[in-house]
Every structure is written in C-alpha cells, then in structure tokens.
Design a protein that fits this description.
Number of helices: 11
Bound molecules: zinc ion
Low-confidence stretches: none
Strand content: 15-25%
Largest sheet: 5 strands, mixed
Length: 355
Amino acid sequence: MNENMQSIELDARGASDAWLIATGAFAPLAGFMTHREARCVVESLALPSGEVWPLPILLRTARTSVLRRGARISLRYGERAVGAITVSEWFSVPRSWAAAIYGTDDVAHPGVAAFVKGPQTAVAGAVEWFADRSSAGFGGLTPAETRAAIAARGWTTVVAFQTRNPIHRAHEYILRTALEVFDGLFLHPLVGETRSEDVPAEVRLRCYEVLLERYLPRERVLFTPFDGWMRYAGPREAVLHAIVRRNFGATHILIGRDHAGVGSYYGPFDAQALLRGVRASLGIEPVFFDEVFHCARCDAVATRRTCSHEPDGHLLLSGTEVRRRLRNGEDLPKEFTRPEVAEILRTAMAEVRDA
Ligand SMILES: [Zn+2]
C-alpha cells in the first residue's frame, strides 16, 4: 500500500458493508452503489439489471476533497488500512430516499435517523479488502467458507435463520420445526451494530451456544455470526437478509413475525408480504412462520395454525417482551426462555446495571 495514498476513514457500518461486498455476501454487488443503482433500488426494488435488490448500499463520507474519478483510495478502519475503493463517481444523497426505504421519514426511527444524519456525499466504486478479518473485528465465516462447510456436510437443503434477539422458546420452536424438514440449519445471528436497547451480540451468542450444547443436535447446525448491521428497514431488510443468505449457500430462509422491524413502524406480516411478491426471483425460498406463543391449554408452544384455543390462554413470546422483562428485572418463565438462557441474560443485565 502506497503511504501517500489518499484515504477515507470508515465507521463500523462502512467497514461492515465493505467486508460484505468484498467477500461476496452482497453479490452481485462488487462495490458501493452509484447514484443510478441506488435510485433504481430505492424506486423499484431492483438493480438496473432487473435483479431484485431492496436497499441502497452507500459509502457516505465527508472527505470529499480526496475524491477523483478513477482514483484508488485507501479505506481505513480503526487506525489501519483495511481495503480500497476505486472511485467511479460521487453524488449527493437525497434525503427523500429515507421515506421510500423505511416507509416513514420519522427521525425517531433508528434507520431514518442514521440515514439523515450521515454525510451528504456518497462515493461509489469497486471495493477491495486486504486486512485480515479479525483485525476489523469480524468473526463470521465468509460465503465461500460457508458454502464449503455446507458441501462438506453433504446437505442439499439448508435453512437459514437470522435474528438480532436473544433466543427464546418461539425461536426454538421455529428452529426445531425447520430441523424436522431440512437437511441442515444455518444459524446466522447478526452481530454488527444494533440499537443500544438490543441485547449485546456476545451475550446473544452465549445464549445460542448453550442451546446448541444442551438441546439441539449440534451436527445438524452450522453456527457462525453474521457481520452485518441492522438497518431496521423491516420488509426491505427482510429481502436483503434473504439475498445475503442465498449468497452464503442457504436454500431456504425462515421469516417470522415483524422481521427486521422496529417499534410499530411495520405491520407484523409486511415483510412476509413483500417477500411473497419477489420470491420467484430471489434464488432462495422464504419459509414463513405465524406468530408463536405458549398456549396454556395445549401446554405447548404453538401458532394459530396448530392451536384451536382462544388467545386468552396464549403467552406471546416476543423479543420485545423478553427485553422488557429483563429491563424491569422480572422473571423469564420457562415457557418463555430456557433456564440456562435466562441465567445468561440475567447475569449480563446485572453487569450492565452495575457498570
Ligand atoms: Zn392451544
């Protein structure tokens, strides 16, 4: 690397996107988007080629003085050069895109807030990555490594599961049901930047580990973190999550209630509806789950598809409810969370409170 090369400093999100582009997780993207690509995606949910793509992948920077068309600019993260971008163009990001992407322009929405706060200029161009992944804080397998691991296991059907929440019995129900049907489970929890209210990634990973050690058939689960960050774009982000898991080699992806949603900005099944509309051209098959609850009369975890009782005996198992109970120091009953998982969460929350 030429020491005199101009550079752009990446934040955690920019570094994550550059890594995902460079490793093929965002294929067919080979770089940060041009204005034409981003506008096409925002307006019509597709790249100019017609391929489905739901969200603009932009490198926002205030360092406009270094931009020259055709220049190869160093990408720095955490004090070191991690990659480079060959500049094809740069453009001013229209604020109006936020409403199209997120379905709202309310700045209380964390995705909208991040979008409108970012630098005005986006720089487009092909991305290279040459640092080792751990120096940038990434720990997940790449798409190529994941595909190789799937091939080594001899799986034909692989169902992916994405979440940003600590695992509770609703997730477990979905995972077990999927394991009844598919050869292997690709457990791929998102560990990049999330809202501060979300449970920290390392705590969530410990919860998965204990479930894999004590309850699930370890050899049927490929477990690795996903080094992406949450955009909280609801339905559009659900489509991105599906495309990315296709690129990692999954054949199916589980989509539950309010996938990638936040607050009450999206209807509980908006993400499923959008995915139904584009599923034919995704290259991965979404598998939809209804709202999961514990039914006192069934004495089992169920959905409306498997339980005939009135909802008054239903305990809704939602991530929001888990977070609320943890915050208030309330119990997490065993219908809700495995005791081993509840213990990890309680300890972690106590550390946060005592810190
Ligand atoms: Zn029931």
